[in-house]
Amino acid sequence: MLLIELMMASVRDLDDIMLLCSHDRHWGALKLLRVLFERTTTLKYIAQNPSEARAFLDFDAMDWKAILSGIEERFGIKAKPETLERINEAVKDLREKFRQEPCTACGMRKQTSWTPRSSQELAKKVGLEHLHFEAFVLPSKFIHPTYFGTSQMSRESPTGLRNILKATHTLAVETVLTHQRHFRGSPLASSLVREAVVGFFRVWKFSPHDFGLRDYLVNVGIDGDSELR
Predict the structure, then answer these.
(1) I want to staple 149 with a disulfide (CB 3.0 to 4.6 A). Which of 30, 142, 158, 204 is the partner?
(2) At what angle do helices 191-204 and 161-183 cross, to 10 degrees?
(3) Contact at 8 Å (CB) between 33 and 168?
(4) Read out DSSP for 35-71?
(5) Which alpha helices (DSSP H) does 49-190 contain, by range?
(6) Which letter, b or e, does each residue of 140-157 get, where b requires 16 or more Cβ atoms within 10 Å of its Cβ?
(7) For the chain, percent of residues with pLDDT exceeding 70
């Protein structure tokens, strides 16, 4: 259920990025690229580590508490007592389960989300570290009000449309392959999936990433001396 929901949400991310790119709204597409990257990284990690799904789902209580508290404070609408009791109990259990001592250097607790791993650690675990800079670090400078991002956006349009589209295409193929590996056992069992992978290299020609399918790609004429660099 969780994997399917992550995939369905990714479809909307993909549509929005492509819509923005087609209308020359590249700054918006770049910012949404981080959303797609994080969702795809989470999808792959949970697919490879099913036991981690419970932690992801349990942290939903934290979000519900924040949302319901905000609605009550802003609009004066309060959830049913039994609902609040259930969520508060879940949050309490969650804090006990993930209790950690504050960092001696910064004073903050190490784990502030469903996993103690950083975005870079998760990306490395699932083979997406090659996109971490372009699809996470760089977009973050424009999502948050950094001076770097502010000065860039106030002066010119981004010049990396090609990079945005290539990263988006990579994440789309990764999502398809994750679906096939998890539900069908092998991504190569589907002719549509094989075409999607080969099609990626027809479009972009060169890539440092083989999607974990190097032997197949070499067999169809995509070898390490040309496309896979």
Answers:
(1) 142
(2) 160
(3) yes
(4) HHHHHHHHHHHHHH-GGGHHHHHHTHHHHHHHHHHHH
(5) 53-58, 60-75, 81-97, 119-125, 132, 138-143, 147-155, 161-183
(6) ebbeeeeeebeeeeeeee
(7) 90
